[in-house]
Design brief:
321 residues; alpha+beta; 60s Ribosomal Protein L30, Chain: A; 4-stranded mixed β-sheet; two-stranded antiparallel sheet
């Protein structure tokens, strides 16, 4: 639109300069071209001429134009019959006169098109915004519900696992360590059994006495410890701090499901993961050793789910006290 307007104004200015007619003469000229534009438009579109800027209003504009120093000016009547085609190339000004109405017609049509399209877009945008907003709100609500349900399921699953693990460990009680720290531990849990072994002078260090962690949880098929494992890991770290001369070996084990090589690797990674957590809690790495045994040394039958669960474990053995 801006380009067409610039071109049109330039041509009109050139017309005024060439003819020396001024604004009044230009107005008369534009009015004289209306018939050409109307004749060029198909009959079924002639009703649109009055809505196009520069054509429908020309008649009313020229009727009010006055020459300076005179009364009302009536422009001369122009013949509506097109001039005969010239035998030679037409004069440059005559050529401009012929296509100028077409340019005006095109300019008005383009303006009308953009006005109509703008109205349609405004309606479409309003409807589209409402639909999209509702869709986004619905998707966000569904996503939030899914996340909430997933978190709730994970929490419930972890709580159920811990409940199963602690069911046979006896009652929890407070045990005070030489460091003054009190642990809240189960009667038959690893913490109490390990402390009793360390403090009993009649229990020598050997290679056959192992103590199984009873509240460690890993992600399935991974060496990632679940947050619920932190309580027991902290208890073990406090025991090692209370008995600084004690050294331990960590053993990782799996059931016999899957490849033996894969199980061996997973058991090593899990033993290393537990060692790493104890180091983070302030235990020197030199006091800890870790080894993965895979599906070797099962403590129960792998023919049942319960037996396989018992075989998937981390155990410790005192190597120095």
């Amino acid at each position: 639109m801006s380009i067409a307007s610039t071109v049109l104004l330039s041509l009109l200015g050139k017309k005024m300069a060439d003819d020396g007619s001024g604004p009044v003469g230009l107005t008369s000229f534009l009015n004289s071209q209306t018939a050409y534009a109307q004749a060029a438009v198909p009959s079924n579109l002639s009703s649109l001429i009055s809505t196009i800027p520069g054509l429908g209003l020309l008649g009313s504009l020229t009727s009010n134009v006055s020459r300076p120093g005179s009364g009302s000016y009536v422009p001369p009547v122009q013949a509506t019959t097109p001039p005969p085609a010239p035998a030679y190339q037409p004069d440059e000004r005559d050529s401009g006169n012929r296509w100028l109405p077409w340019l005006m017609l095109l300019l008005g049509a383009v303006a009308l098109f953009f006005v109509l399209r703008s109205c349609n877009n405004d309606k479409g945008s309003a409807n589209g915004t409402t639909t999209d907003s509702s869709s986004i709100t619905s998707d966000a609500s569904a996503g939030a519900d899914t996340v909430a349900n997933t978190v709730e399921a994970v929490v419930d699953s972890t709580a159920e696992e811990l409940k199963d693990l602690t069911a046979k460990l006896g009652a929890f009680f407070k045990r005070k360590l030489p460091s003054g720290i009190e642990l809240n531990i189960p009667e038959f849990g690893i913490e109490n059994n390990l402390v009793k072994f360390i403090e009993d002078p009649n229990k020598p260090v050997d290679k056959t006495t192992w103590f199984n962690f009873d509240r460690l949880l890993f992600d399935t098929g991974k060496a990632t410890l679940k947050p619920a494992s932190q309580e027991q890991l902290k208890n073990m770290a406090e025991i090692l701090k209370a008995y600084p001369q004690v050294e331990l070996k960590l053993g990782g084990y799996t059931d016999n499901t899957g490849s033996a090589a894969v199980n061996k690797k997973l058991s090593q990674e899990r033993a290393d993961s537990v060692k790493g957590e104890l180091v983070k809690l302030g235990i020197a790495a030199s006091r800890l050793d870790a080894e993965g045994y895979g599906q070797e040394h099962p403590v129960a039958s792998n023919d049942t789910a319960e037996g396989r669960a018992q075989n998937r474990r981390i155990a410790v053995r005192v190597t120095k006290k």
